[in-house]
Amino acid sequence: MRILAPTLSHLERSLSDLSTQVTLAALDALRGTRLLLHAAGVAAPDGRVLALVGPSGRGKTTASRHLGLHYGYVSDETVAVDPDLTVYPYRKPLSIIVEGKPFKEQIAPSDLGLLPLPDAPLRLAGITLLDRDPDTDTPGAFPVDLIDAICEMTPQISYLPDLPSPLQYVARIADQIGGVTRLIYRDAADLPALVEAMFAAPAPNAQPWTVAPAAATTGPWRCAEVDDAILVDGRACILREGTVTALDHRGALAWTMCLEGARTEQITEAAVTAFGEPDGSTPHELMTQTLQELVEHGLLIRA
Questions:
Q1: Which superkingdom does the taxonomy of this entry point to (predicted)?
Q2: DSSP characters for 172-234?
């Protein structure tokens, strides 16, 4: 029997698969111990790290290639963060899409001229959501509401439910860095100047939040047990069975009053006080609909 030597394409495919498997194994080893962002990361000379979050295909590797020529290359794939903002680099080869090939090539950072890490402790200074818009007239970094940021980042956080008090964990990190931003840019070549401005700008004030109160054992409604929940500016963000749900102001008011054991009539009266008379339906009809939606989302049970 003749043994055929592997072709170059087979070797390249194997290296691509190996890179994926090593990354998955590394993430699994850290589950529940750190915030694991699906993000590119670059470091300023003083060790401050910016994590650029986005799903596959959003441009993280391209961003790494452009930014890594000006800042220390941390990762093009995963940024791991401790509660004290310590960042752990993952300087893997960059996974580059090559036209005509069904797999990504793995290219060493040094071969692309990317800079080494600075001689300073790495500490998270910012989390930004990558958003390329070739037609934008206003490129730059813009603040994102905390609940909206959590909802958008949830698919880009590995093993979120395994963290202790997961939503609070993310919110506390956001507190320390001044919140999450969205980086809107036209082209990757514009990123170095935009990131330079982000590193130079003072950290903004973080958005206040509170932990949702414990559920009462009285009243006509029972709130389902949740893994974690926070309240932000009259809205609620709830993690239950691995799913994050955001409630608008009316839904959050209804849910939190159900936590306190309130009756439907009390919740309706509070909603009218807070939001005024609704258009197109009576206050009772609208609140009945709101409560039913909470039931359908598995957050409420009629006692």
A1: Bacteria
A2: HHHHHHT-EEEEEES-GGGHHHHHHHHHHSPPPPPPP-EEPPPPPS-SSEEEPP-SEEEEETT
Pair 120, 175: CB distance under 8 Å: no
Sign of CA dihedral 156, 85, 192, 119: negative
Q: What are the φ/ψ torsions at residue 123 (nearest 5 degrees)?
A: -140, 130
CB count, 10 Å around CB of 137? 7
* Contact (Cβ atoms closer than 8 angstroms) between residue 42 and residue 68: yes
Residues 149, 174: Cα–Cα separation, whole Å = 10
Angle among Cα 172, 295, 282 to the nearest 5 degrees reads 105
pLDDT the model gives residue 19:
60
Tens digit of each residue's pLDDT (9 = 90 or more) over 117-157 = 999 999 999 999 999 999 999 999 999 999 999 999 999 99
**CA-CA distance, 215 to 198, in Å (whole number)?**
41
Q: What is the mean pLDDT of residues 1-5?
A: 56
Q: Which range has the worst mean pLDDT, 53-62, 78-87, 116-125, 256-265?
A: 53-62
Nearest C-alpha neighbor of 292 from the set 266, 258, 269: 258
Query: What radius of gyration do the chain's Cα atoms show?
Result: 23
Q: Which of 8-12, 95-99, 144-148, 154-158 has the lowest mean pLDDT?
A: 8-12
* Average of per-residue pLDDT values in the chain: 91
Domains of the chain listed by start with CATH number: 8-200 (3.40.50), 210-302 (3.90.930)
Dist. CA 238–CA 247, nearest whole Å:
8
